[in-house]
Amino acid sequence: MTSPAFLERYRQIGALDQQKNELIEELLQRVTDLENSFQREKLDHERETRFNRDIQLHEMELMDQISRIKTIMDREPFVVLLLDGEGIMFKDEFLQLGEQGGRNAAKQLWTSLQAYVTGNFPSIHTPKIMTKIYLNVKGFGDTCARSGIFAEPSTIQDFIRGFNESMSFFEIVDVGTGKNKAHDKIRESFKLYLYNCHCHQIFLGCPSNNEYARFLEETLVDGDFSGRISLVEGLPFEKELDAAKSTYRSTKFPDVFRSTKVSPAWAVPWKSSIPSRTLLTPSPTQQFQQNPAPLSRTSSASASGLGVPLSTTTANKVSDPPDFQVVRSKPLGTTAPKTVERNKYGQRVDRLDFKSIPRDDLNRLKKLKLCNYYFLLGECPNEENCYHDHDRKLTRQELHILSAIARMTPCRFGLDCDDPECIYGHRCPQSEPGKKTCFRGDSCRFEPVAHGIDTNIVKVTKI
């Protein structure tokens, strides 16, 4: 073999060594890259492991917090009943019993609500039941008295006292006079309870008007809370609440609330089949059957001086024995003329000096719940079903005080009344001549025109 051949072979072997070295370098570089990649993946894995562990710990803490919050939210669950007294009225048999009727109404309402919640919301465990009723107490009492539900407007005060005392979370709130007073309070209370996690259901009883329909529609826009609201229907819903009735759950409590409107204002306070005591004038105690026989008054009642001032001295000198019965016998008739005394303006004047009546005696007689018709007129046309006392024996002084109590209830016909036997008041007994108001201000039950009446009698109308 020649030297050029050896040289060629050498060169070939050298080229192979070069390729081998390049291959080794590439392999070493590849190993280095893989090691670096591995380290990065290892770091990422370790970071994710720490992150996952932290997340798990944080999740456990959050779940513990949620559990504690849920426990707090589940404490003291309650449902609330918001009622507008204009649209929801208790049944007559509750209102007529005064304080005891208030207790009975509260008990029956609680029972009805408890049964409804148990049957429709089994997930709510032993909720407290709250009831808030908003109404104009003075106006409501006058309406009930004029409609014949009870004889004295003050009966509503006894009913409210019994209702409020019966349950810890039951209350009737007097909103006073003014338009939409009850609506405004119910609206704000509704918003407060709607977003309260402890309140699981709101029962809303209201009249059918645009104000309530509007804020019920606003509630749907703000969020779907229809499941948390139940409408309570007393009187049948009218067109204003038709849409709301189809959206919200609705219920009735017929054992508690009346489903019919009250009779027209100034209806008789007893059955319409009972004859009136007089046909001469349309006093608040008339409107019975035609051609009735007038009820007679007793001579004792006439002698007691109805409408005649009783001075302090005279009041103190009265010393009738405890068993003296003033009103009981019914004489066949009376020959004494019946008169109505008026001032120079033709306004009727009740001659009764309230300042001469001891305040303690006045309050004591008020609490006795005596029947004004029986003791002042001699007979109660509804004696069998009357809830007031007919059996007590009264002295002349007590009869005089009872006539003053009756005068505290305004007569429908006011200063124009010409019924000589009318027992109601025709002028504010607390006002003084010339003064157009009294210490009660706007809350007085008598109209402004019945204040400041001239008490000087210049003419007498004989009936």
From TrEMBL:
<dbReference type="InterPro" id="IPR057683">
    <property type="entry name" value="DUF7923"/>
</dbReference>
<dbReference type="GO" id="GO:0008270">
    <property type="term" value="F:zinc ion binding"/>
</dbReference>
<feature type="zinc finger region" description="C3H1-type">
    <location>
        <begin position="365"/>
        <end position="393"/>
    </location>
</feature>
<keyword id="KW-0175">Coiled coil</keyword>
<feature type="coiled-coil region">
    <location>
        <begin position="17"/>
        <end position="44"/>
    </location>
</feature>
<feature type="zinc finger region" description="C3H1-type">
    <location>
        <begin position="427"/>
        <end position="454"/>
    </location>
</feature>
<feature type="compositionally biased region" description="Polar residues">
    <location>
        <begin position="278"/>
        <end position="303"/>
    </location>
</feature>
<protein>
    <recommendedName>
        <fullName>C3H1-type domain-containing protein</fullName>
    </recommendedName>
</protein>
<feature type="region of interest" description="Disordered">
    <location>
        <begin position="278"/>
        <end position="323"/>
    </location>
</feature>
<keyword id="KW-0479">Metal-binding</keyword>
<dbReference type="Pfam" id="PF25543">
    <property type="entry name" value="zf-CCCH_tandem"/>
</dbReference>
<keyword id="KW-0863">Zinc-finger</keyword>
<keyword id="KW-0862">Zinc</keyword>
<feature type="domain" description="C3H1-type">
    <location>
        <begin position="427"/>
        <end position="454"/>
    </location>
</feature>
<feature type="domain" description="C3H1-type">
    <location>
        <begin position="365"/>
        <end position="393"/>
    </location>
</feature>
<dbReference type="InterPro" id="IPR057654">
    <property type="entry name" value="Znf-CCCH_tandem"/>
</dbReference>
<dbReference type="InterPro" id="IPR000571">
    <property type="entry name" value="Znf_CCCH"/>
</dbReference>
<dbReference type="Pfam" id="PF25540">
    <property type="entry name" value="DUF7923"/>
</dbReference>
